[in-house]
Amino acid sequence: MVRVSTTPRRVAAALGLVTALLVAGCSGAGQQPSAGPASTTAPQPAPPSSTPPEDPATLAATLVGELADEDLVGQVLMPYAYGDHATKVSAGSAAGNRALAGVDTPAEMIEKYRLGGLILVGFSADDPTQGNQETTNVDDPKQVRNLTTGLREAAGRLPAGTAPFLIGTDQEYGVVTRITDGVTMLPSALGAGAAGDPDLTEAAWRAAGTELTAMGINVDFAPVADVLVTRSAVIGSRSFGSDPQRAADQVGGAVRGLQSAGVAATLKHFPGHGHSAVDSHTDLPRLPQSRGELAAEAWPPFTAGIEAGALAVMSAHLDVRSIDPGVAATFSYKLLTEVLRGELGFAGVVITDGMNMAPARRFPPGEAAVRALKAGNDLILMPPHVGQAYEGLLTALRDGTLPRSRLVEAATRVLTMKFTLGDTPTPALSTLGAPAHREAAEALAAGAVTVLRGRCDTTGVRGPVTVTSSGGRAHTRAALTKALTKAGVQVVLKGGTVVHLVGYGDGAQDLRTGAAVTVAMDTPYVLAKAKSATLLATYSSSRASMTALADVLAGKTRPAGRAPVKVPGLPTTTCAD
């Protein structure tokens, strides 16, 4: 039974009650270092209350009271692993796992450290996060489903195995998309922002969530709630746009869509990576904005996501000068506990950004994990050494550096999210790419196409078309060629009306002199330098976006999108309302 979208406020209220009771009544639990019960004294039953017996928070609190120290620590860790199978990996993957965790396989890692979850990673050339993706776990949906099945089998043998195992990935759609083959590809978040219809966004993300569930994934590190205030290649088209309220509406739609399909949504990157162009994978960005500016410009999408019931928020490696100068938000009690929980009212799971990123690696893995937990995180993501993070937390718990109440609270929140997700039925893999899913993606992509120069009624091309692009985009050119042909437009190798495509990472040098139409498939800023008579933006190079573009170029549909960011010298659209 999927309980995600219907209980977030009840779960939050119950969680606060049962956590307080558990911390007060079981402060001596889990002292023994064995794998057996946490103590020789049975946990005292909670006093009678109106909370339903199957409430996720009650189930979580009961289970936490039965777990040993080692299990509590394991529940707050979510590392990555090497290999595309749970129990059989290549020699290279085994070597990687030994260096990371002293084991050969992902299943052994789960069993040794009693893990609460695992993140599946991957990378592509046009991915601003590729620097911390040292391996890949994904190939195609069938392989992913086999992998996740094996991971769950390993987790089911743990003392905490009655709670569903968390398997997450970064499936944002657009430039950060871990699983690309065999799935319905949505347009980027910026494309959804251009379409400006939260209902279309919700429907598309519901389709995406259903496909993730079919592959055995129940946590998506998406949507990106960052407002694109600062022009940035790090966030860029991963954001829904530069207007806080419009972005907030889109974030709410994405959360509702994902969680209605049984996948936990994760709002990222709090307190707002869109306010800096510095890459937090390699450095600690400084946010100079005042607290008031952040509250007005950065936090509305996070608030909207929280109100929509988002089960998780990802903390960011950002130095907010006006609140906790010199301290990354990942390690800031002021930002995570006082602001995110106290002011914004978030009661769910706070997840760190990758702890293998440079700002977090300023501390040894064990110390970093302890600092992050004490600041208010509940789940430690991608520690650079699993064993050191695990032992660091366990040692800090036993010597009192890490308060038991904080670990109990974190583990209870993680388990509450697990029980809230429940044992969601796994759809058949044939669900992937279903007609209804493609239609939802295509509707969102069609709404995104924007005219920034040229008239809406003259965007259709006459005569044969030549499709060109900046380097390395043969696949996208082929997709557009196929879509144009299907739409009735003749495509030739040379000599026709030139439609030129530019995408992620392209600049003025990648534009084509003499192109009749220039199309931006990522952020549209490059169009400010283009001389073409017609300027269009799709914000995405997905198949759905190329189909939508072809229909516009063929004169079959009217482009209705509005640029969700300001492009110097150009309007948000030339189309009348």
From TrEMBL:
Keywords: Glycosidase, Hydrolase, Signal. GO terms for molecular function: beta-N-acetylhexosaminidase activity. Its EC number is 3.2.1.52. Residues 33-43 have a biased composition (Low complexity). The keyword Lyase does not apply. InterPro entries: GH, Glyco_hydro_3_AS, Glyco_hydro_3_C_sf, Glyco_hydro_3_N, Glyco_hydro_3_N_sf, NagZ_Beta-hexosaminidase. Residues 44-55 have a biased composition (Pro residues). Residues 29-56 are annotated as: Disordered. Residues 105-416 form the Glycoside hydrolase family 3 N-terminal domain. GO terms for biological process: carbohydrate metabolic process; peptidoglycan turnover. Coiled coil: none annotated. It holds the Pfam family Glyco_hydro_3. Residues 1-29 form the signal peptide. It catalyses: Hydrolysis of terminal non-reducing N-acetyl-D-hexosamine residues in N-acetyl-beta-D-hexosaminides. It comes from the Bacteria. Belongs to the glycosyl hydrolase 3 family. PANTHER family: BETA-HEXOSAMINIDASE, BETA-HEXOSAMINIDASE-RELATED. This is beta-N-acetylhexosaminidase. It comes from Verrucosispora sioxanthis.
